[in-house]
């Protein structure tokens, strides 16, 4: 776990810097510098692009991580990497041609309720393509156990650029239309920088004698398209479907609540950057004991951190909403439900890495597609009736079912569970902290109240973790910190 903890810690710091910048953008700049309509438009464009990304990537990011360590000969690795560079083009080129000839049809479809979306079909495609190749080059660096720079580019670079652009919009140095164009350019630049870094780690040598297991690789990549698309649908389709059924301003309100809840998933995202390739190596070695150890320790660490973030958000949420425009202040239920789903995801540790890098990935991918369809149907049913709460309920239900089934699948196929006695003790600690602080309020400004309550919660929580030795890994980090 040494390399896992070191890079996970670095990735967590970088990711939280990105989320801090994102918080400034989402909670304060977007809500004040753009109209609600244009903020909703930005959210819709990015959500459509995120849904398009796994299709255009042709499953290559996951395929690269799964198979790279299985090749030992340099020529075999070169031929494999050549294939990984070319595969996305087999979908990007025909989809670009289709977008050109079917521009009106696509535009009319995505703008049925909100006509403002119609003129941004190419924006969606270019950002989706940039995201796809960025993930390819990011995975290129992951397999060389270098994840921090890629994580910086993913979590910080674009957000900093958007901060600057929003300030320029505020001072009327650029128009909103120019802002949207430069957002597309930012994603293209990010992709190119990541490409240069990936080639710095290992310069590709084109070898068109493709790997001996080409059929297996293509089959895996094709199925990963389904799985990746299903996973993104579970995360992004609610915003897309809000655009289809109600006014686009509601996407802005929903996006703020979702962003707040998504902060909970930062530790998971950070740790997964390094546990994915490590899990692939362990599975290739068939080391069941090490797999169980990584599963349980990653799950415990993520539960400790994500659980703390969840209660910090819930216990401070009313104060946080005092800082936002009134239109954005009705998202408590959304944050509660989506946040709970994110915690349930964290409790599974490196579950996704186990399934996607094992021989059982096909069942998981088909299951993901099924649940993505259910999510869409839930949204179609609940959004017209309950609005934004309906979207949150649909997403929570789908994610909870999906996580439960993944947990069951790993138990059946590998005979391991992420749960330990220590996790139960952490749950009790979280409940005790909530009971202690739920009704505690200070008579100060909202920011001061948030800081004071958060410091008290963190102090008691960390002290209890350390005293009762609930996690060997967390105690190890705390011991190093205390020695310094």
UniProtKB/TrEMBL annotation:
Membrane topology: Multi-pass membrane protein
Transmembrane regions: 12-32, 38-60, 80-100, 120-140, 152-173, 179-197, 217-235, 298-317, 329-348, 360-382, 388-410, 422-440, 446-466
Keyword list, A-Z: Cell membrane, Membrane, Transmembrane, Transmembrane helix
Principal place of residence: membrane
Cellular compartments per GO CC: plasma membrane
Lyase recorded as keyword: no
Cellular compartments annotated: Cell membrane
InterPro entries in the cross-refs: Poly_Biosynth_Transport, Polysacc_synth
Name of the protein described by the UniProt record: Membrane protein involved in the export of O-antigen and teichoic acid
Organism from which the protein derives: Cellulophaga tyrosinoxydans
């Amino acid at each position: 776990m040494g390399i896992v903890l070191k890079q996970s810690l670095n990735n967590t710091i970088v990711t939280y810097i990105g989320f801090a910048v994102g918080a400034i953008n989402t909670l304060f700049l977007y809500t004040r510098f753009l109209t609600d309509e244009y903020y909703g438009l930005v959210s819709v464009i990015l959500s459509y692009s995120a849904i398009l990304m796994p299709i255009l990537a042709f499953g290559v990011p996951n395929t690269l991580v799964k198979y790279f360590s299985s090749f030992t000969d340099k020529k075999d690795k070169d031929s494999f990497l050549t294939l990984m560079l070319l595969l996305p083009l087999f979908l990007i080129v025909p989809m670009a041609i289709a977008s050109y000839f079917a521009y009106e049809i696509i535009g009319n479809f995505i703008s049925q309720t909100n006509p403002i979306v119609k003129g941004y079909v190419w924006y969606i495609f270019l950002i989706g393509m940039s995201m796809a190749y960025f993930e390819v080059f990011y995975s290129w660096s992951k397999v060389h156990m270098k994840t921090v720079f890629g994580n910086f580019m993913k979590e910080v670079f674009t957000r900093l650029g958007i901060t600057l652009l929003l300030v320029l919009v505020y001072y009327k140095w650029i128009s909103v239309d120019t802002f949207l164009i430069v957002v597309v350019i930012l994603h293209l630049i990010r992709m190119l920088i990541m490409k240069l870094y990936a080639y710095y780690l290992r310069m590709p040598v084109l070898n068109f004698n493709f790997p001996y297991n080409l059929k297996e690789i293509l089959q895996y990549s094709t199925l990963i398209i389904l799985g990746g698309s299903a996973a993104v649908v579970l995360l992004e389709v609610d915003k897309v479907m809000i655009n289809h059924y109600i006014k686009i301003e509601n996407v802005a309100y929903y996006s703020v609540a979702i962003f707040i809840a998504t902060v909970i998933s930062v530790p998971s995202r950070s740790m997964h950057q390094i546990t994915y390739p490590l899990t692939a190596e362990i599975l290739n070695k068939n080391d069941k004991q090490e797999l169980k150890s990584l599963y349980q320790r990653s799950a415990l660490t993520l539960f400790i951190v994500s659980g703390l973030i969840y209660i910090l958000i819930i216990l401070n949420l009313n104060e946080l909403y005092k800082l936002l425009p009134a239109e954005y202040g009705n998202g408590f239920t959304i944050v509660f439900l989506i946040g709970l789903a994110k915690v349930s995801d964290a409790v599974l540790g490196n579950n996704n890495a186990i399934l996607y890098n094992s021989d059982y990935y096909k069942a998981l991918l088909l299951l993901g597609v099924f649940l993505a369809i259910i999510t869409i149907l839930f949204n179609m049913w609940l959004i017209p009736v309950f609005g934004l709460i309906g979207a949150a309920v649909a997403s929570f239900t789908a994610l909870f079912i999906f996580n439960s089934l993944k947990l069951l699948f790993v138990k059946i196929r590998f005979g391991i569970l992420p749960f330990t006695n220590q996790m139960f003790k952490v749950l009790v600690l979280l409940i005790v902290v909530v009971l202690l602080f739920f009704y505690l309020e200070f008579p100060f400004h909202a920011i001061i109240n948030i800081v004071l309550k958060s410091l008290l919660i963190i102090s008691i929580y960390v002290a209890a973790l350390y005293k009762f030795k609930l996690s060997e890994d967390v105690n190890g980090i705390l011991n190093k910190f205390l020695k310094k």
